[in-house]
Amino acid sequence: MDEEISVPPVTPQTPLGLFGTEALIGEEDRAIRDTVRQYVEEKVKPKLADWYEDGSLPVRELAKEVGSLGVLGMHLEGYGCAGTTATAYGLACMELEAGDSGLRSLVSVQGSLAMFAIWKYGSEEQKQQWLPAMAAGDAIGCFGLTEPDFGSNPAGMRTRAVRDGSDWVLDGTKMWITNGSVADVAVVWARTDDPGNKVRGFVVPAGTPGFSAPEIKKKMSLRASVTSELVLDGVRLPQSAVLPEAVGLSGPLSCLNEARYGIVFGALGAARDCLETTLEYARQREIFDKPLAAYQLSQAKLADMSLELGKGMLLALHLGALKDGGSLRPEQVSLGKLNSVREAIAIARECRTMLGAAGITLEYPVMRHANNLESVLTYEGTSEVHQLVIGQALTGEAAFR
Predict the structure, then answer these.
(1) Is residue 1 pLDDT above 70, yes or no?
(2) Which CATH number fits domain 15-136: 3.90.1150.10, 2.40.110.10, 1.10.540.10, 3.40.50.300?
(3) N- to C-terminal Cα distance for the chain?
(4) Which of 141-155, 174-188, 213-227, 359-373 has the lowest mean pLDDT?
(5) Average pLDDT of every residue of the chain
């Protein structure tokens, strides 16, 4: 008689535990990450389904809370900013997006777009006026670059800034602006009438005559996020509103690079939340008298998804180390953004199949993450744009036109 083979019990591991990524994260960065994770788990996740269903987000309340944690502009130095490592910022983005992409978008736009633009290109007066309040969450910022007809091609922007004596007068429209309707200040980019029609950045207080920010409704993605249009109708600004150190498109593009770095980590947070939810569901869901997790097809799916999540995390941590070392290049950020979002949305969709009909409800976060990632796939550079950035780096040939 064949002797029955006894298989010892195995303690289930988490997907990232399988890769041992904790060993690659420093103690201080890990502590920051854990603080943000605890906040998201206790204060945000219980309310997200309702916010998503209602198509709303209490931006000011949340900004104050994350500001008190030191998350807003956390990777910047001075002016009330925490001055953390880039890796810590990435890990914080991961935890925020494990809650919801809308929450991470709020923080990204505030810290890596609006605050970063003022911090890097602003005058000392602008920095003193806005950055401490924005770091604390007392003032909300937005970033006006994208236009209705110019997303991937910001060089075609039609928003104009014309000199009138010592003032500037801005006219134009910006679209798909996170935080726009609730912002206290907007960093707006416009083509000027200076020689060469150089693009310049302007710090626009929300109460300025001619400035309005109607909210965009009826979204199917990023519902727990405030998305707006910015309308500039004869907005008159003094010379002191200009960001003095930003001339040309390199200014706004460098800000976008900061924001998409956070997405490299953030999208993986959404994927991790989907995968951990699905693992727990598969262990408990009984089908044909045994757990869904005990089937070979289920395990094959879970293994493949964990592999992609782990590879994405290893790349993200490597890019974080490069950024902390001051050697991260824009095309490397494109590698991370393309990979993280592409794999995250694939993981979210696959997880939805494993949850069956339960996967389409807000009882579980999977469909919400999948819908949100459709937006993340598009903003801060579409997948196609990042493919072309990488292609140019490999071949030396620009193929954008």
Answers:
(1) no
(2) 1.10.540.10
(3) 72
(4) 141-155
(5) 95
Mean pLDDT confidence for 193-214: 92
Please determine whether the domains at 15-136 and 251-395 fall in the same fold group of CATH.
no
User: Alpha-carbon Rg of the chain, whole angstroms?
Assistant: 22
In the chain, domain spans: 15-136, 141-247, 251-395
Is 60 exceeded by the pLDDT of residue 135?
Answer: yes
Question: What is the tens place of the pLDDT at every residue in 38-84?
Answer: 999 999 999 999 999 999 999 999 999 999 999 999 999 999 999 99
Where in the sequence numbering do the catalytic residues fall? Answer: 380
Give yes or no for a contact between 221 and 371, defined as CB atoms under 8 angstroms apart. yes
Residues contacting residue 199 through CB under 8 Å, at least 6 positions apart: 157, 189, 190, 191, 192, 247, 248, 249, 251, 252
Name the β-bridge partners of 212: 231
User: Nearest to residue 18, comparing CAs of 351, 347, 345, 311?
Assistant: 311
- CATH number corresponding to 251-395: 1.20.140.10
- Whole-number pLDDT of residue 194: 80
Max CA-CA distance within the chain? 100
User: What CATH superfamily is the domain 141-247?
Assistant: Butyryl-CoA Dehydrogenase, subunit A, domain 2 (2.40.110.10)
